[in-house]
Every structure is written in C-alpha cells, then in structure tokens.
Amino acid sequence: MSPPGGIATLPAMSEPAPPAAESPLDPEQRLAAEAEADSVLVLAGPGTGKTTTLVGRYVHLLEQGAAPARIFVSTFTARAAEELRGRIGARLETRGGDFDAERFRRMPIGTLHGMALRLLQRHPPPGCPRFRVFDEQACSRVIARHRLYLGDDVRKPTDVFGAYKDRLMSPAAALAEAKVRNDATLVEAAEAYGRYQRALAEEGGFDFGDLIMELVRGLEEDEAYRARIAGFFDHLLIDEYQDINPAQERMLRLLRSEGARLWAVGDDDQCLYAWRSADPAFILGFETAWPDPALFRLSRNYRSSATIVNAAGALIGANRRRHAKDQVPHSASRLALTIAGLDDDEDEADYVLRVVKGLSGRGMPWNEMAVLYRAGHVGSRIQIRLAEAGIPLVVRGAGEFWQLGPVRLTAGLARLLSNPQDMDARAMLGHGKRVDKLLQQAPEKIDADVPWPALCRQVGRLVSATARPPGEEGLQWRDLAFTAADLAAECGTVAAFIALMEEQRRSLRRAESGGDAVVLSTIHGAKGLEWSAVVVAGCEADLMPHESSPDLEEERRLMYVAATRAKRWLVLSFAAERRKAVAPSPYIAEMLSGLDEDQIRYHDPQSRARLHAGPPQPVKADGPLRLRPELKVSSGMRKGRAPSKRTRF
Ligand SMILES: Nc1ncnc2c1ncn2[C@@H]1O[C@H](COP(=O)(O)OP(=O)(O)OP(=O)(O)O)[C@@H](O)[C@H]1O
Predict the structure, then answer these.
(1) DSSP string, 356-392
(2) CA distances from 470 to 150, 465, 474 (A)
(3) Considering only CA atoms, which of 464, 459, 462 is closest in space to residue 489?
(4) Complex ipTM more than 0.95, yes or no
(5) What's the DSSP call for residue 438?
(6) Quick check: 303 and 46 in contact, CB under 8 A?
(7) pLDDT tens column, 151-191
(8) Contacts of residue 622, Cβ cutoff 8 Å, sequence gap at least 6
(9) Which of 368, 299, 276, 342 is nearest to 567 (CA)?
(10) Pocket of ligand 1 (CB under 6 A)
(11) Contact 487, 649 (CB under 8 A)
(12) Which protein residue has the closest C-alpha to ligand 1 atom 8?
C-alpha cells in the first residue's frame, strides 16, 4: 500500500516542537493578565494562550497579595478544572516560597456545578433540603422507575430536563411556556419534568442542574445569605466563557454582588453548546452586561502552522454572529493541508490507519495524533480498523463503539437472550420505550435456541428494524446494529463475545491511563486540546453541517474547533459514499479559499476530482440500501484468533 499523499514529504518531525505549556507571557497576554478593570474579557482565538494567560492572572493576583481561597476559578469540565489546578500548582511551585500543595488542593478551582455543590454542602442556604447528588446513571434509574419517557425519544429525558434547569425554569414555568406555544410535545416534556422533580425530591436527590438552581434560589431569596456567600470571593476567573448558560450567568452575577472582580477568557467562535443552552450572546454582549468592562485581545496563535491558521480563519470568517479576530501565526510553517476523498467509510478507515502508521513510522508518538469527527458512527469504523491493527487508542466523547445506542441494544439483547441471568447485559440495554418494545417483541420474533451466530443475526435484524427517523439517521442506526451483530456472531460463542468486549474495554482503559495512544474523539470531546497531527474524518455535506442541526453557525464553529486542534499537520477526509452518495462538506472549500496552491495537497488525483465534482446523483428512492453486506471483522479485536472470513446477512 502506498503511503497517503503528503506523508512521504512531511517535514513535521524536523520542525521545532512548540514551546512548553507555561512559557512567559507575551506583552498582550501580560497586559490582559494584569488588567485592573472590574470586568475583564479576554477574547481571543484558539491557540492564542487564553488558558496560559488565566494561569498568569492567578499568579499575578497572588503577587498582588490576593488570598488563594478568595480566588474562584472555574472552567467547563471537571477534567479541564483538574488540568488547570495542576498547571497553576506547577507554576506556584516553581516560584518557591511557602507553597503548600496539600492546602492548594482545597482552593476553589472547579466547574461551576462543582462550585455550587461545594457551597451548598458547606453553607446550605435557608430552606435547602438535605440532598444526595444523583449522577447521570442515578437520574436514568429515576426516569426508568417512574417511566418518564418522552414520546420523542430522540433526545434523552435527562437532557430535556437539564435544558429547563440551564434556563432556571421550574416545571410550572416550563408548562406555562409550553401552553403559550400550544405545543403538545412541549407540554408532555414539561409535565414529565414536573414528575421527575417530584420523584427526585421524594428520594432526596439533586441532579447536576439542581445544584446551580438551588444555589441561585438561595442567593436570590435571602439577602443575608447572598452577602455572606458573595463576600467569600474577591476574584472570579472564568475559562471558556463562551459556553456559559443563563443559569450559570445568574450564579456569577450573584457571586460578584459584593464587589468581586470578574475576569473571563473565551472565544465566541468556539461556542459549541447551544444545545445545552450555552449562548454566544453572553460573550458578544459582555461589555454591556457587566460594570466597568475592559476587552483584551490576544492575536498571536502559538499552536498552529500558518497554513492551519489561514484555513481556519477563512472558514470562520463566513459566520456572521461573531467578533472578528485577527490571528498572527507564531509559526510561519506553510506545511500543506491534506485533502483525502475516499471511496467509502471502509476506505476512509484504511486511509486513517495508513496515516497514523506512517506518522508513527516517522517517529511521532501515538499521543500526538487524533482523529476527530462530528458524529460517533464515523469514528466507529475507524475505531474498529485501528483496534484490529493493534494501534493503541483512546476514545473520548460519546463515541466508544460499544457505547453507541444500536450497538448496546444489539450486544445487550443477544447476550440477554442467550442468558437471561446476565445482569450486565440488562444494564447495557438501558431503559426507554424502544428497549421496552424490543424486550416485548424478542420472545415472539427471535428463536433463542439457535446457535450464537444465528441468534446474533436475528437480533441485529430486530434492532435494525427499530431505526428511525427515515433517512440517514435510520441508515446509520441499522448499519451499526448490523456491525455489532456481525462482530458478535464472528466470535462463535457468547463466552468468546463477552471476552472480546472485556478485552477491548481493558485495552481502552490501559491506553487512557498509559497516555501514549491515538485519540479518537467527537469534536465536542476535543475542546481545549491540541495534537501535532489531526485527521478530521467524515467531512461530508450531510455531516458537516449535520443535516439535523438547526444552527448552521454552530456547525461551522464545530469544524473550526476540529481544525484548530492541529499544531502542524491537518487532514480533512471525506467519503464519496457512506451508504449513499454524498458530496464533500462545503467547509472544505471555505478553508481552501484561505490558502495558496502550495498549501494544499490532495491525497490522490481522485481526491481533487471528487472535491470539485458537482453534487452526487440522488439515490433512487426504491434502490437497495447498502446495509453492510460485508464487514471485515477485526482480527486484532478478537485476540488470538485468525482473521475471519466475511460475514453476510
Ligand atoms: N506566550 C507564549 N509563548 C509560547 N507559547 C505559548 C505562549 N502562550 C501559549 N503558548 C502555547 O500555545 C498553546 C495554546 O495555549 P492555550 O492552550 O493556553 O491556548 P488557548 O487559547 O486556551 O486555546 P483553545 O482556545 O484552543 O483552548 C500551548 O501549547 C501553549 O503552551
């Protein structure tokens, strides 16, 4: 097999590595870190050192005499918060003096939800009931026990209820809104929300959304309580400000009511959580929303090559609702961006495998490579192919193959039918209307006494038949159900299948803790991270922008975040056919418009031809579906067994 275009001449290994994380601040960063205004927004693009500047701000405040316990630092995820704590701690340690690592671990650095929990536990507001925190699993159990499924189960009930809480809406307010809009689906959701809140209260549980709701309630209802709590802090440092939602904004507003200074960093172009009520309007309107505002910009991109900065700039420039930003690439590298137009998803997976092997062969560590995608099913084919080749990999975001909905249903149901006592299999199935229906249909539609491979195929068919809505999502659903059934059948016995799943989970955990592994991630899961080489897979017209998304600007931001994770080498790959003929994503052309010819490399002549070809011929409505008739089942996924023959349904 020939190496993919570009690898042979890849100068990546000979280029200097980017500087270490805590480089001294540049003049723009220093100005922002030392700002005096009451409300500061550092607005800057990816890789400009926003997080680095936040660390610098913390150190600066300490140098000015601030007490660490009075500096509240928040970021978006618990993982990011721990990384931030580690970075600040390392910086303080190098300053010497009397740094006490144990004490520093207790300083208020966390997510806004985590901070709300901490305040509620240590200083409960008047009227706050005793509570236990219910994680997502516990909440799903409440939903299952009370059968709070929604007719439209495309969105999980926990997400729907969470969205009300992100907007600080009580069940009564949600119901009133639904009635005003005269929308039966919304009325059903609001009523289920009310029952959910009652069920949580009976069990003494708060879910994550309740934590901020309850703190805000306490702060708003009791002035003395608010004054006491807000009085704890002199400084609020907020990372990823573009992703805050109305409930979080209210919490910050209340926490600074005793005069704390607000200092936030963010990038409106990286707001990815509109579906969780994040609203770019908060960052766009910062200067009118807060007192004594000051806006700082960082213009030097320390992460990416000039090629990547230019291509990403051309892309995001097409969005209208944004602050324009100039970015100067620190690295002058014009290393070409690679476009790979592949036949189909199998071909794409083969290509990605050749790319990572090629880079590794040239000395790049696995953990400097990532494959990012908009939708989990794009990653699953690549995941299987890399795993079978024995490449160490970590799957981040909602995308681990065995966690995908149709895969869980197929594997769980086949196992359960083969052994009704298999509790893990029951847990894999989860709960919901679709699960109830499957369990109801299974006894009459499936002959469970046949050998394991035949059982798997029957289950694959049954699960695939639950696909909906019509269209691509249904096709993806069926494809994944068949893939899972195929993999399970190939194992020969249920015991071998369970062993395969366990081994894969173990190897994922090993890779995660060991560190040196290629990252496969949804774009959402890649936020804030960086790698030397990034392949953005599935760059197709119906996936990027995703055809079901109502927000095209957010879709473009997703592509932007994906592309800007790359330091030196960026590949955009697309398949000409993914169960139907598809055109390349329009975002590819937008990115290329920012580049000169010498900054673009096509994997092969066909890639260029495919990119510039017109839209694909529509698939005949009555034409046969290409429902993975043949899957090369991975040898590496079934340790110790010879590569299998292809399976046909
Ligand atoms: N002053 C500097 N000198 C050299 N390198 C720097 C400097 N500031 C930041 N960097 C490097 O630039 C890279 C990006 O920094 P950082 O993660 O802080 O950016 P960011 O703006 O928060 O990015 P994103 O918005 O994509 O999360 C890191 O590798 C960091 O070490």
Answers:
(1) HHHHHHTT--GGGEEEEESSHHHHHHHHHHHHHTT--
(2) 19, 11, 5
(3) 459
(4) yes
(5) H
(6) yes
(7) 655 567 888 899 999 999 999 999 999 999 988 888 988 99
(8) none
(9) 368
(10) 18-19, 21, 23, 25-26, 29, 44, 46-52, 267, 270, 302-303, 528, 564
(11) no
(12) 49
